[in-house]
Amino acid sequence: MTDETEPEKVTKDVKKSAADKKSKKDQILEMEKHLTNISTILLHTNATPIRYHDGANYVCALCPETYPLPSELKLHVLEEHDQIDKSSFMEGHRLTSYVVKLDITNLRCLICHSEIEGFDPLFEHLNTVHGKGLHTDIPNHILPFRFVGNGFDCVQCPKSFEHFKLIQEHMSAHYGNYICETCNSRFVNKRTMQNHANRHKKGDFPCSQCAKIFDTNRKKLNHEKFVHAGDYKRKKCPYCQEKFTNYAKKRSHMVKEHGAEPLSVKCDICKKTFSTRARLRGHTRRDHMECQHACQECEMRFFTKMELVKHMVKHSPLREYQCDICQKAYARKHTLREHLKIHANIRNFKCELCAYTFVQKCSWKTHMRNKHKVNVP
Fold it and tell me: N or C: lower Cβ tally within 10 Å for the chain?
């Protein structure tokens, strides 16, 4: 029996290996096309790449130089970086993580000095007028931006944004080469999609240093880093390197101490502005979204189907998660984990007014409301 099946197994392994090699070869060929495209664009137009925005300055993609204004960065790239820099740009990068952030403000051709209206016409112009042979048979991994005043205009739709990070996130909607199977979010390259998909993976991830258990590995790693490693101040000021526990505190510091522009995010529907993205999300849900997903068992309604699915567990008669200590059973694993904290006497919630500590958040909130007359969210 073994002698008969072994050749079959070897054949399958050979076929699988050949398929893997073919796939890798295809990736190498596609990457070569990407490199040809971006080097051709940089050599023959005034489009310039941006590495990232660090909160205060734009960082050159070809060297470590930084500039507060994108126009200054563009001038630096055009005057300081030669053909060798531009022709070798992004060499050595893998296809899975390949993405180029490209400034196409006031775009023009350096061969005939014609103005070019946008990103798609750029390909057509260089190919039809100058015969440069840009590859159009591959997914686009270039995110084009257009700077207008202190903001950014999307080159594919009428939307505009006030912050570089927001337009980067938005551009994935237009260049979504990879789609998350869980939530249908779109991403320009495979690595970004995989990093995002890992957030959806559920399970039991115990902390290596305490009794806490988390439902995702990301939460566990964040807990170990910020609680046990002492690196809880994870937001660094780009001007003075001082660290803060959250983005709002960092932004407030930048405005007060360094004269940075206050954060202002605008609602696309009613044009109201808000000082934080969290407040914008709350406004959008409260004023512009309908709870279309209704529970058939009670009167509750939800904004998303996922919220409804999580809620329906309450109505299920199944209680498959049982406590080994007191035998109580729960419908949700998360509820069981919270219950186990009672037995372990893990008191993570502390009253800052009288130093009482609590196992559960609901007990802490009740205490704050009844004892100190303080309403907490």
Answer: C
pLDDT per residue as tens digits for the range 222-269: 777 777 765 545 577 877 778 777 777 787 888 888 777 777 777 888
Amino acid identity, position 18: A
Q: Which residue has the tokens 């079959």?
A: 8
Higher pLDDT, 9 or 192: 192
* One-letter identity of residue 88: S
What span, in angstroms and rounded, lies between the C-alpha atoms of 101 and 86? 14
- 100-103/142-148 β-pairing: parallel
Q: Which of 127, 129, 152, 151 is nearest to 137 (CA)?
A: 127
Banded model confidence at residue 10, pLDDT cuts 50, 70, 90: very low
Structure tokens at 228: 């046990």
Return the CA Rg of the chain. Answer: 27
Write down the residue that tokens 């048979």 correspond to.
137
Ramachandran category for residue 330: left, alpha or beta (phi over 0 → left; psi -120 to 50 → alpha): beta
**Mean local confidence (pLDDT), 31-53:** 95
Burial class (CB in 10 A: 0-12, 13-18, 19+), 266: middle
Summary mean pLDDT of the chain: 83
In 3-state terms, what secondary structure has residue 323? coil
